[in-house]
Amino acid sequence: MPRSKPKPQARGLAEGLRFERRARKLAMVEVAEKLGWSESTLSRIETGLRNASTEEVSALLAIYQVTGVKRSKLIEMSRDIDRAAWLEMRYADVPEQAKTLAQYEADAVRIVETTVITIPGLLQTPRYIRSLMGSAGVAPPDIPQRVNLRLERQKVLNSKRAPMLVTYLDEAALHRVIGGPQVMADQLRHLVEMAERTLVEVRVISFGVGGHAAIDGAFDLLDFADARPLVHLEQLRSGLFLDQLADVDPYVRTVAALDSVALGPMQSVQLIEHLSARYESLD
Fold first, then answer.
1. Model pLDDT, residue 93
2. Rounded to 10 degrees, what is the CA torsion of 123, 116, 164, 227?
3. pLDDT tens-digit profile of 140-178?
4. May I ask which residue range the UniProt record assigns to the signal sequence (predicted)?
5. Looking at the chain, which terminus has fewer C-beta neighbours within 10 angstroms, N or C?
6. Are residues 109 and 216 in the same domain?
7. pLDDT for res 96
8. Neighbours of 53 (CB within 10 A)
9. Comparing C-alpha atoms, which of 201, 204, 248 is closest to residue 222?
10. What's the whole-model pTM score?
11. Rounded distance, CA 54 to CA 208, Å?
12. Structural domain containing residue 73
């Protein structure tokens, strides 16, 4: 039976601690020596393979001189770290879950992105991302970092171990004009170019289908070669990771249902090309 990867919240904490150490340009061996730990202990904490206690996290943050809201956030994450689901409420800055999701995507063998209103994140162009975040109310100072993080996530599609990416997007996402006609024309051309790749499949759920299994909201389903799948859900002010089989299975069934009603890859590309040409004519 496939094993479970480190729990999402544990991995999120691990990523946060590793980020703070690297931001201070501290070597792992240097930090371990200051705390009287072995380097392997710190390494396992930073990869999520060993849960760090609240006291250990506090000690690390003292060395990294992390204070205020950021310290409180990481300390809170260390509590009840093995919970089945990780809910993160978002108020400012770049969400910790965004960094954790990038790590999971790098490990995945298949990523399924379903979207209703917007183009899937791994296939968004920089101008589309900026326009989308601006219209969604992201604070202007936070936008560049969030854009860069999403573009960094997209690099997984060019890696030597690139996962299979399957996207199911509602036709509504193609008609919703984000950033103006030219931004949309560029975005849809990019979708077509990406769909030509062997490891990328773009499937459109046409208006003719009516209601469908994912109409209530977007989600990501990630499959791994050596572990159980997990699901990530993202909302305006919150994000949620699910990794328990009972929680993930309904999303697996939803993907199967979408596969049965979505346009085929070739038909999907033809529709996208038609709409791209229409946006070009509006410029």
1. 56
2. 120
3. 888 888 888 899 999 999 999 999 999 999 999 999 999
4. none
5. N
6. yes
7. 67
8. 12
9. 248
10. 0.74
11. 53
12. 1-83
> Do 19 and 100 have their domain in common?
no
Here the tokens at position 50 are: 């060993």
CB 258 within 8 A of CB 201: no
- Please write the tens of the pLDDT for every residue from 72-93: 778 877 776 766 566 555 544 5
Phi, psi angle pair for 78, to nearest 5°:
-75, -15
CA separation for the pair 255, 111 (Å, rounded): 11
Looking up tokens 């929680």, which residue turns up? 247
- Number of structural domains in the chain: 2
Return the amino acid letter for 196. E
Which residue in this structure is represented by tokens 């001189």? 65
Least confident of 106-120, 123-137, 220-234: 220-234
Residues 127 and 56 in one domain: no
Instruction: Note whether 97 and 152 are same-domain residues.
Output: yes
